[in-house]
UniProtKB/TrEMBL annotation:
Record keywords: Chaperone, Cytoplasm, Stress response
Gene3D superfamilies: 3.90.20.20, Head domain of nucleotide exchange factor GrpE (2.30.22.10)
Primary residence: cytoplasm
Organism: freshwater metagenome
Subunit comment: Homodimer.
GO CC annotations, alphabetized: cytoplasm
Span list, region Disordered: 1-30
Name of protein: Unannotated protein
Pfam families for this protein: GrpE
Molecular function GO terms recorded: adenyl-nucleotide exchange factor activity; protein homodimerization activity; protein-folding chaperone binding; unfolded protein binding
Length: 180
């Protein structure tokens, strides 16, 4: 068994398989190996460089997409912050308009321009009497039992809520009728 290991066969191989393989001269094996390395060396180097190039191109494409996505997120966040800061003034002007203070006043044009600017960016006002109460977008300031309702319904809007696309800028402040 020790002789088989020295002869280059493993302990599990049979003597027949060792005898069937042609005896190759060490010089011939070295020469064949050297020829094989010469033939595949430049190809594997080219393949390696090509793979590196393809990987770098893919990384660059991903980088560009990530930067574009980050830029869009930052832009949307900036728009949201500006609109959020303007909402109290818009609320005051809307209340003045509802009270009749803006009729014939230059502030009526300001309200219209502010609303148009908000619409341009996708600002949507929500919450109206009779809407179903949704705790994700409405803040209930008052809950009043009402035997006529079967689910929580908005009784009155104290302050409207605003959405920018799918993003909640400010929840609506509402009074709610709850089932009695």
């Amino acid at each position: 068994m020790a002789e088989e290991n020295l002869a280059g066969t493993s302990p599990g191989e049979s003597e027949a398989s060792a005898q069937d393989s042609p005896a190759a001269e060490p010089d011939e094996v070295d020469q064949a190996l050297a020829d094989l390395v010469d033939e595949t060396g430049p190809i594997s180097k080219e393949a390696e460089l090509l793979a590196d190039l393809q990987r770098l191109q893919a990384e660059f494409i991903n980088y560009k997409a990530r930067v574009e996505r980050d830029r869009d997120v930052a832009r949307d966040a900036a728009i949201a912050e500006v609109l959020r800061a303007v909402l109290p003034a818009l609320d005051d002007l809307t209340r003045a308009e509802a009270h009749g203070d803006l009729e014939g006043s230059p502030f009526a044009a300001v309200v219209t321009k502010l609303r148009n600017a908000g619409d341009k960016f996708g600002l949507k006002q929500f919450a109206a009497k009779g809407d179903v109460f949704n705790p994700e977008i409405h803040n209930a300031l008052v809950q009043t039992p009402n035997p006529e309702v079967k689910e929580n319904v908005i009784a009155d809007v104290v302050e409207p809520g605003y959405m920018l696309g799918e993003r909640l800028l400010r929840p609506a402040m509402v009074a709610v009728f709850i089932p009695a």
